[in-house]
Request: fold
Amino acid sequence: MYKYYWEDFPQGKVVEYGSVSVSKEDIIRFASEFDPQPFHLDETAAKSTLFGGLCASGWHVCAMTMRMMCDAYLNESASLGSPGLENIRWLKPVRPGDTLRVRQVVLESRVMESKPKVGLVKSRWELLNQNNEEVMQMEGYGMFRRRAL
Reply:
């Protein structure tokens, strides 16, 4: 029924996927609604900040990453959601014109003791720009149905 199950995420698996180009209009649109700080909304105001120019909200970066994850595998998987993230780190500003992709590293993969039909996958997602620079990193868990019991 699904393309991906818990068994498809063994510890040590590394895969890259996705591609999204970030526009000035996208940055401002997201920030206007969800994170209206000057360095996300106004190029002139952003120049005088620590960032030195317009940059995407970290939450926008997370949302773009989530979209790439859904397109690459989550929407075709036996996903049961996530119990949460352990950390998110925004390492470099995401600028208009950047093109982003995701590298997923499976750190741990195990069956849940309390729910043996469910596998738990701990991953690190590294978001890279067109210069192969890491702009964000997050770690967290996904829960997936097992293919066979």
User: Anything to note?
Assistant: The beta strands are 14-21, 84-90, 99-111, 118-128, 134-145. The helical segments are 24-34, 38-41, 43-47, 58-72. The chain has four helices and five strands.
